[in-house]
Amino acid sequence: MGKQKKVTMQEIADRVGVSKYAVSKALSGKSGISAVTRSKIFEMASQLGYMNQKSAKKLPSSKHTNEEEHQIVGILIPNIRSQNKESGYWGKVLDGISKSLEAKGLGSVLISDDSPRNFNLVMKPEGLMGIIGVGLIATPMLVELRNKAIPFILVDHEDELLECDSIFMNNYDIIRKLVKFLIGKGHTRIQFIGELGYSRSFIDRWSGFRSVMDECRLEYVPNEGLLKVKPTLDEFNLNLLQSSLIELEASRFPTAFVCANDQIALLAMNALQRLGKQVPEQCSLTGFDNNLEILGETPMITTVNAEKEALGIKAVELLQWRLENAPMPYAKILLQSDLIIRESVGDPVN
Predict the structure, then answer these.
(1) What 8-state DSSP symbol labels residue 67?
(2) In the sheet where 256-259 sits, what is the strand order?
(3) What is d(CA 207, CA 222) in angstroms, rounded to the nearest whole number?
(4) Is pLDDT larger for residue 124 or for residue 215?
(5) How far is CA 187 from the centre of its chain?
């Protein structure tokens, strides 16, 4: 078998119709090219396998060094959306990572900026054992880590353009269990609320929801507005949620709503109440995460208990495994979770 031909920047440039210089700038995360061109370059690089051949570089192994500088793990959590250590969700993920690293005698450095340029200005890449990425991380930063052969693990995120190790809650299966619970209670008119492009977890939860609706042959017409609702408090988002629910009143109103996370569930419950729909007397509602910071001290919303701290602990274990098993195929680990049944689910009112 002949040696696999190496994919070059020039080949990517020729196929996209740009200069090799533009490809270099895109893959290194530098500015100066449009978002559309950058996206096309990333997509072509991914299709041709350019990014994955970068991983052929030898990864550092924790077995072969006891140097102090190699006992540091970078925790990359870009300070966007609600991704920070004060968050009731992400903060617990960080707690799991920190506790696990401390127990193993490893140091850590928190990185809140996913700009490749800033990363290179302040970090000494050869001093890092690896990086644990938490939440949404920009593609150029992941490309930079791959180019520098820094092992990285992603928590609750993956990038379709780069293969890598990742860890998630088992979103698909637990949402299937949740929807079957609703159907068991007699619900047949069920809508999903949450923007599909917001995160990979939202897409997996939507997929689990759809699979059960299809298997049970329940009529379901997606409401396009509800599938664009984000877990944010901005006025446009709140108005979109309200107008989408009003739109549903023109036909038979759903008896239950499956929300992509607890924040959306809380927004939906408030919007429903403004329409005069009481939960659970007139319609049922579910969330995801069991984020008590959002749900409050006396939460009534039926939800899924995301094992947030366990995600962090498992991420450290996965990084150590990768350091000791560099040639092994990339792994995607799914942690199981449980339903937490509360007062927001009742019998359907027809």
Answers:
(1) -
(2) 190-193, 256-259, 284-286
(3) 13
(4) 215
(5) 29
